[in-house]
Every structure is written in C-alpha cells, then in structure tokens.
Design a protein that fits this description.
Number of strands: 14
Number of domains: 1
CATH class: Alpha Beta
Strand content: 15-25%
Structural class: alpha/beta
Number of helices: 12
CATH architecture: Alpha-Beta Barrel
Helix content: 40-55%
Largest sheet: 8 strands, parallel, barrel
CATH superfamily: Aldolase class I
Radius of gyration: 19 Å
Amino acid sequence: MIHKLIQKIQKTDAPIVVGLDPMLSYVPEHIQKKAFSEFGETLEGAAEAIWQFNKEIVDKTYDLIPAVKPQIAMYEQFGIEGLKVYKKTVDYCRSKDLVVIGDVKRGDIGSTSAAYAAGHLGKVQVGSNICRGLDEDFITVNPYLGSDGIKPFIDVCKEEKKGLFILVKTSNPSSGEFQDRLVDGRPLYELVGEKVAQWGADFCGGSYSYIGAVVGATYPETGKTLRKIMPKSFILVPGYGAQGGKGKDLVHYFNEDGLGAIVNSSRGIIAAYKQEAYQKFGPENFADASRAAVEAMIQDLKEARN
C-alpha cells in the first residue's frame, strides 16, 4: 500500500491528507436540519448529518488529494450509528481510489492487539466465510506497550500489504511530558523513532517502509532529527494549519527525493467555510471552501519544498 500512497502523491503533487474529523458543530445547519427531519434529533440523525457532510467534502476534493484520515473518535461519540458512518466513509473513500489512513491509535498486547489488527487491517473467519471489518489501508498505532504490542499489527500488514503510522512525537502541547523525557541522555521520542526504523527495516516497499511514523508539525526541529533517524519511514505530520504548523516549518520532514512525508489538515479543511479567508463561500457551499483550502495548502507546501 505504500506504493499506492507514493504513486498518488506523485500524481497529485500533493503530499497531503485530509483529516475527516467531523464534529457536529462543523456541519452546516441545512445539512443537520435535513438529517434531523428524517431521523430525528437522535444518534442516527447526527450520524446521517456527518455522512452527508463527509460525502460532499470527498466529492469536492478527491481529485486533488492522495489520502484521507478519518479519526474514529469523532464517529464513536455517536455510538454504533457513528461507527456505521465511519465504515461507510472508509468504503466511499476507497471507491474514489483514495488511500485511507484510519486514525485509531490502537495499541495492546497479545490476542487483543491481534484482534485490533484483524478488525482494522485484516480479516476474520466466520464459519466458512472470510470477512473484513473496517478495512482501512493504514492505521495509527500507539507503541507504548512495546514490541509485542506492535508485532501483531506488522504480521497482518505483511499478509495484507497494508501499513502503520506509529506515534513517535505527537503535535499536542503536553506531548513532552513523556515523549521528551531523557532516557540514557536522549529524549524518548528518539528511541521510539529508532525502534520504528528497526521494525520497518525488513518490511520495505522499495525505497520506503510500510511502517511509518507520526511526528507533529508543531515541532519542526524534532522533525528534522527524526527524519535522519528514520530515513525509510514515511512520516504522517499532524498539526498543520489549525494547530499552527506551516509549510515552511515542514521542509525537513521530506527526503531529498521530495517524498517521505504526508501532511494532515483536518478542521482547517473540513471547516474552512468558518474561516475568514473562505467566508465568501458560505455554509451552503462549504465543500467548495474545503476545496479552496486544499488548493491553498498544496500551494503552500509546494512553495516550501521548492
């Protein structure tokens, strides 16, 4: 799957991923009203509003981008109905030939980790049938439990030719409480980065590994260091836009071949119509505002890389 991600990035010249992280407050009133008139002010109604919101954004942007990243918590808050829409969104994006990165941050050990891996990336035996669950192309994984928490995911990825993005240095302000702590004189995130490179060393799709890393845009100097530690790992970069990251901050996340990183923007794109720069579109044309925000992000990253 890393091959497809690279090919899509090269084709679009857009190393970006749109984070489909919808809060109900992002959904324009006319969509909410329509959904509530059909399903009531219920979890089912909320889920329908989220689905219609997602679908319109995907329809307006899929030709510009290589990938999307739905954050599962934004769907889980609406219970089973929300999870149905998560799956519906994954399937719809794949039908548009987009690479889907499930932002699920799973991490456990033994059979539990194996079950997470099967549910998100692999398959399960149901009687005489083989069934697939959520079926994303990549997922995010928390490495805090160590190698025996990661190995079941890698095993499934090898079988399915899918991939992982492992949390190394996250974009949130308090990430340093643990990730920056010194271990033998070095910050913990460097040791995790070395482990990611090790896990991915025997699992390469040509020049890049199927095992990537998450490194926030809000710490550009850290990104520069980790790029050297993980030369064959693709880096998923959250924190662009709404969290303060800009294209000029991200140059060192890329390798000399212009590849090696994919930058995420979530509410900066899906809620673009709420921003002053895109207010002219209005709520009725929210997805056109999202398209304009994608185009602006592509240009910002292109200028920075050049």
